[in-house]
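re: ur question from yesterday

yeah so i grabbed the chain u mentioned. its 600 aa long if i counted rite. heres the sequnce exactly as i have it in my notes:
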Amino acid sequence: MNTIQVKIEGRLYDVDASLSILEAARSVGYSIPSLCYWNGGHNSLASCRVCLVEVASAQGSRLVASCVYPVAWVGADKGFEIKISSPKAIEARRTSVELLLSNHSKDCQTCVKNGNCELLNVAKITGAKDNRFPGEKSKATYDDCAPGIVRDTSKCILCGRCVERCKEAQGIGILGFEARGFETFVGPAANRSFATSPCIQCGQCVNVCPTGALSEKREIDLVDEAFRQGKYVIVQTAPAVRAALAEEFGNKIGTVNATGRMVAALHRLGFYRVFDTNFGADLTIMEEATELLHRMKGEGVLPQITSCSPGWINFAEYFYPEILPHVSTCKSPHEMEGAIIKSYFAKTHNIDPKDIFVVSVMPCTAKKGEAKRPQNAANGGLPDVDAVLTTRELALMIKRSGILFNELPEEEFDQDLLGEYSGAGVIFGVTGGVMEAALRTAYHALTGKEYGPIDFKEVRGLESIKEASLDIDGTIVKVAVASGMKDAKKLLDEVKAGTSPYAFIEIMGCPGGCINGGGQPFVKPTLQPEEGANVLKEYRQKRANILYTIDEKMTLRQSHNNKDIIALYENFLGSPCSELAEELLHTSYVSNREKFPNLK
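ran it thru and got these structure tokens back, copy pasting raw so excuse formatting
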């Protein structure tokens, strides 16, 4: 590391010369407030001016945006000093925040970001006054037409985080700055709705929004109404939810496996049954691995690409319709489980499927749209899943019910036909997890033997693209894993060109997989120095470690050994990819999806 000596607040420090002033200050114990800064500065446009500091020398002083100003330019050997708490710097930051507040909708009590609002936090830190600059506000747009995301520009502070995040994570650039001056706003081209733009609904923009300008489209009211109507309200929870839910109740990232307390809370909320989507993940592996084996025998095109991520499916339909024949026809785990609840479970319990209301708790905003796809309605036109709640929405339901989450006992998922699950199902929440789970079962199907060691670590890790080869009795099967559409394009271009060397490709819409989904707890970009400079880079791995630890501790670690899955096929479905399995567990895609439909 190349270091440089700088003077901050009158003291000399040796810091990494590659850092910005803001990052250098944090590395030695100073927390400069900021709003547009995110993800190590990669997404910072220096637009909010909340991080202004004074850089002084014998020749005078000036204010600079510390989030983008290189510390290497203000070395102590050049006679510079960085002043964070000088009257000039303090007043400048306060004024910046007051200007933002002057054009901001301040319905804090009802705002979805209440308790997590970064604007309110920096207002407190800087001592900003609410009405210092009264006057006209910019014209606002409220867009709640899309299934997963709501946009309210009256709360937008033009920080540009969402703009940069969409480009950085997905390579799409749906959002941008529109108009000029006082009329400037952030939105899709021509201020279209998310519903009429090629937005994949991943929610990565929501995760980085510092205010309530972007949020998930909440469906708690749908669940409340189902309870009021006396429905059999059945809930299922995705694996990634348990890796992050505890964060909503004050626990540090990666320190608590929330499974037991989550189940206890759901029981107390009054759900008729509390199931684990890991059962659906095991079922997905049985279907997907069988489909892969059929394709390897010439019954379909290779490579086969996974279909568990609805954000990725949206992307494929919009931007790569040519490769849809390569995409597995398997529904995602929660949709499969919903279809089984409304068929096998309903029949066994003598319940009319119309009286069942299935709720999925997911780490993902795109799942909300997936549940509304007409292709995912296997039982008499009834949706497989009736409502999707994000991890954040579940936390809100628990809090409003007065449940003391951290004091709950550990409870088990209901063991009623759909209760057992494997470690393979658990790791679905991490990039590479679907691939590893599928390989464990595909290897067994091809050889009659269990793959050993069980862990297929070649596909683990948070790199955007991973490649590996598996030797199955002398046959080399090449596989690849990608998360985030920006980097997945490399693999997709190879498939499109017919040059892909792989038999199987896993793609997840969100970088890192579901642990980093658009419905997961917010990660604060402004960290206290003692928490460590690398926390933002490590939080995904910390959540992933929880899921890998659960898998490692389980006795049952392969989907094909799940007794409840075996019983489901013996008593109901017949076999993987049978006619009934195809009807209930498989879906289809739209190859002519318009990116910008004509508005009339």
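noticed a couple things. The longest strand covers residues 475-483. also The chain is about 35% helix and 15% strand.
anyway ttyl
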